[in-house]
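Q: I'm writing a short explainer about Xylan alpha-(1->2)-glucuronosidase for a general audience and would like to include a description of its predicted shape. Could you first generate the structure from this sequence?
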Amino acid sequence: MSIDKLAAAHSAWLPPRALQAIKARRVAVHGAGRLVETVREEVGTTVTEDAELILRLSSERLGDEGFALYRRDGVTVVLADAPAGLLYGFFHVVRLGEAAFAGEWPVERHVPAMRRRMLDHWDNIDVHPVMGQVERGYSGGSIFWRDGVPRDLDRVRVYARLLAATGINAVAINNVNVHATEARLLTDRLGEVVAVAEVFRPYGIRVHLSVSFAAPVMLGGLPTADPLDEGVRGWWAQTTQRVYAAIPDFGGYVVKADSEGQPGPFGYGRSHADGANVLADALAPFGGVVHWRAFVYNHRQDWRDRSTDRARAAYDHFAPLDGKFRDNAILQVKHGPIDFQTREPVSPVIAAMPATSVAVELQVTQEYTGQQRHAVYLGPMWSEILGFRLTSEADVAGLARELVAVSNVGDDPFWTGHPLAQANLYAFGRLAWDPTLDPLSILDEWVDLALGPDVDRAALHAILDDSWRTYESYTAPLGVGFMVRPGHHYGPDVDGYEYTPWGTYHFADREGVGVDRTRATGTGFTGQYPQPWSDVYESLERCPDELLLFFHHVPYEHVLHSGSTVIQHIYDTHFAGAERAVEMRRLWERLAGQVDPELDARVRERLDEQVRSAAEWRDQINTYFHRKSGEPDAKGRQIY
Ligand code: BDP
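A: Of course. Here's the predicted structure. Afterward I'll give you a sentence or two in plain language.
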């Protein structure tokens, strides 16, 4: 496909303007190999004379993906040790736009912080009767399959390019809940994975597959999937060998085991290290990895039993296994202890396993943050998580080897349902490359690339900068989480999960609200944290307001650090949050005529829904707590 066609075929990140600028100027790239050909195909290039020299001069090597950039004598030069670095350098030039061709500058080095920057698609081949085709997908159908068969992969090529432009280098293409049809991607439907891998390869992206732990039984006809059984080990080894014969750079497997009904090693009385290691051993000869998810908890618990705490589960299961996993087994840990809520503390598992490779998992798809109907820019949330100093030595970004996220992309013309949700995909890639980047500057980059430099940037910042906190303010209060409608998880349902087996409770009664997770009187979850957090969260006085109800059950009159009572805080934030949504809609008016009319129409439709939904949240939450507590609103506003 030609550059022009490619540029015209999608709306984000590589505006024709930027490409033309690059083609018209002189960009020199130096390097060799397949990815260089991709770069050449994109822009046409020349090779500089002094590239070798400069590389020799730079003392540290740039690694497989790093690049150096400088400008001298009217030429912008990208240097890399390896082809992927060149590709990332090229996209960096695109990001810089006109600035890439101004003045002269010395050598800058760019090297990714995370070795793997991965997106997990929760795509099914078939349309699942409850979950749809993409589990927790809010952007239409899968970009890989339609009507049970592979789609034309042209759009996947555009997608691959778009991901490379954000810095993503690994993609798992199917749902972690592996159904019978998708399980076969590992064996007789492997050809479909081969085709996708070929499209991703020129963009430096490796393909991974979610596999079922029961595959030896489901696909191999073995009587058991026991990880210590010789036949099972042999089956995984042979199957994996066949995968690599077809896809030599295959990335590896993703496994959700013993979780929400998926099969796993517990079924055979084995540990999760035993389970992960049998797959790791099969992958090791080929350089592959297994991402083993730590999202293991009892989803059939008795809500009357106050001693079971879902927040504890991952640590209780996995911390004792530290040091028992193979080097190529990566424990994939959700960023919080429960499940991608709008506000959670950082998972203590991230610090609990120093002898294990840990990947932190974020949710770019907005399951619990407005489902791409609400404008919620998640960059600030992720930046806060990654920069959180969990131990005295390191922050989360320093403890994690990799960053993984659940994708928010589907076959929607705007890729992400809500056009503004593209910013989340972009921010994820950029933060995985460099977790210290300012999320608001990342937003600026996205605005430039996706909407152009002439739009009302101040209005976009006013809409998006605080949108995560706005969403938080009109939904479940103070870190208590899960007041969503069961099943689809959109909109408020105050007691929807309260008396269910899922382990997601708020314990609101007439006296107070919140989950007592202290060592002194609660579930003891605070004890899973290193100091000082263990004591900070244990202490009612020191616990940060925004996490108060995650860690403590308090009376409605409890006074927060802010000076407000819990009940008054609930009223105030819910009134303010719903008003803020109205303000966001008003701000968007300023972009009228500055953006593509279809995009404009889509954003307006979503903002209308956000305003409606925020009011619904406000009214249900306020009324619920008003009725429970009997406390009036100090400002006398209407509560139903
Ligand atoms: C939950 C989702 C569910 C996923 C699960 C997971 O509701 O659809 O399968 O996470 O991460 O939040 O496996």
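A: For your explainer, you could say: The chain has three domains: 3-110, 116-453, 472-515+553-629.
Q: Perfect, that's easy to follow.
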